[in-house]
Each structure stands twice: as C-alpha cells, then as structure tokens.
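Hi R.,

Here's the chain you asked about this morning:
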Amino acid sequence: MLIRVFRSNFRLVRGFSQTFSNKAGPSSIYSLQGLDHKTEGDQLLTFAKSLVQEYWTLKREDQEEFFVKLATNYGANKAALEHAITLFQKNPSYFVEVRNTATPLYYKLLKMVANLPGGVKTVCDMRAHILDFIAHQTDREKVHSLRRIEEACRELLTIWFCLSNLRLERVTWESPGDILYKIAENEAVHPIRGIVDFRKRIGAHRRCFYFGHQAMPREPLVMVHVALMDKIADNVQTIVKSEDDTFDENLHTTAIYYSITSIQKGLSGIDLGNMLIKQVATKITSELPNIKIHSTLSPIPGFRAWLLRCLHEHSEYGQIVDDFIIRTVRRATGKQNLSKDEVTDLLIKIFSAERISLEQLDLLR
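And the predicted structure, written out as tokens:
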C-alpha cells in the first residue's frame, strides 16, 4: 500500500515538473492556473511567487513567449471595465472602479512581486530581458505584447525608484571591494585603465557617487564621475590624464560631471541620472563652498544643429540673438560697435567649427 502511494505521488510530482517547464497549453501559463480578476491579497502573492519561480526555470527563448502570454491572457477584465464605464457615465464618483478594472492582471502580479525577497531586482531584470527581446523581435504583434509588459515594469520601477527611496553613496578606495569592482567594471564612457587610473578617479580632486536602493543592496544603479577644477575644461582628456595632485581642493571653483553611467539595464529610460547630478551638486557645494560652477562635458545629441538653425533665423522660439546676447558678446570681444548681424555671424562661425578653442569657450560662458 505504501509503495503504491509513493509511486502515485512520484508520478504526480514528475508530471508537475514537466508541466511547469513545458507549460500547460499553447495560451496559458502553468503557474497562473486558477488566477482570475477576483484574486487578491495573500493568494495573489502566492501566484506572484509561482510566476517568478516558473520564469527562472525557462530557457531564454521560452522566457520571451512567457511574457507574450502574460500580456495576451492576463490583461484587464473587459466586461468589468465596460460595466464600470457605464456606471461612471452616470456618476463620476465611480472613477475608482474604472481605474481598478482597467488595471491589467499582469500589472497587479508584477506589483506583488516586489513583496517577495529580491522582488524589485527581479522586475528590474525582467525589464532588461524584455528590452532585449523587443530589440531583436520582428513580429509586430509580439513586440506589441512585449511592450505592454515593459511599460508596466517601467511604471512600477519609476515609482519604486523615486528620489526618497534612493541612497546617495560616495565611492572611495575604502569602499567595499564588490562595490569598487562594479564601479570599475561598468564605467562605460571612459573605460578605466587599471588600478592606478581607478585610484586617481576616486582620489584627490575627484569625486565618484552612485545611487543605491534598499531593495537592491550592494547594487549601484547609476554613477557619476566628477572632476574638481579651477575652470571649465575644454576637453575630457584634460581631466582623465591630469596628474596635478598638489592643488588645494578648497580652492577649486568648478565641478565638471564628465562621466555618467547607468549600470542596471532594467532601469534604462528612468531618469535617475538627472536626479543623481542634482543631488551630487548639492552635496559638493555644501562640502566645498568655493564651487560655484557646475558643468558637464556630456554632449546633447542634435543640440548644435538645432542652435545653428535658430541662428539662421529658423527658430520657432523667436529671436535667439537678443539684446542680452549682443551686450555679452560686445563685452567679451571688446568691440562695442558690433551689430546684431555681426554678433550672429560670429556665433555661427564658432558653433560651425569642428573644434571650439578655449578662448571661444570663455566667450560663450
């Protein structure tokens, strides 16, 4: 009798395992069988846990199909939504019902994943996978389905990674080894050329900061390298190859944000970099009151072409060269008789050049 029970249970477990990895049907997700729009609370959390467990058992190609099924079969409750809209048309106070019924089931599941150990990192990694799937997928319908899950992940991550949930950390040579490794390994703008170069970038006259999150411990999210100088550098090589360590840090007047890197692919498109620079600027100013100028050497794609169009009288924002610009150029050049057209021609000449000299840069400040 005991042997028969054991054999029966063994077949049940083996069948569960096979179904879990191969999926129950062409349009369903095994771990979500029994899930519906009435599921909530602890039961929804259990489904979220099962979803994550199943996802990590799948091969790469099956993970993509997993998301397509999730978007296709676990969206909003259409019938309930139509009913809520009807109620709303009669009484606007029913907007909450419209919002709730319009929320896709997959959104509720992904939101619940955050309550699992490592759940926030899981959603972040999932979005990174989805972005990769979208980049290589040619089927428009699948791309549309993947995009819906990606947008849900992005919305949730944007909420979870708001400024109040982020932790600003400075990197020094005394920082934990795993943090130093991740910072050095992920520097994408100006790759680090060994230990000596790395020590210089986080040593005197330099600052390196990153954002962390309590739900992703010891995982830098985005980082910025800052050079403390006495003027704005005209090129990044001046910063990267600088060897002068004798200058007093307290005499610096300029902070140059010369490299910013997003480390977590799943957080791409979420504006952490802008928030990081603002927080770092505030911290540096509080520590070094002489710092009055904050500058970046990072290019703005298309800015020069746009500015030249504006200078050529094709601006949708009115006159670019106004009285303030004319006075500034006259004062900088020492030529008080420059006309508006002459000022405009001078600016066009400067911005059309392949390389702007330091003297021209001083003129543009």
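The longest helix spans residues 2-22.

Let me know if you need anything else.
M.
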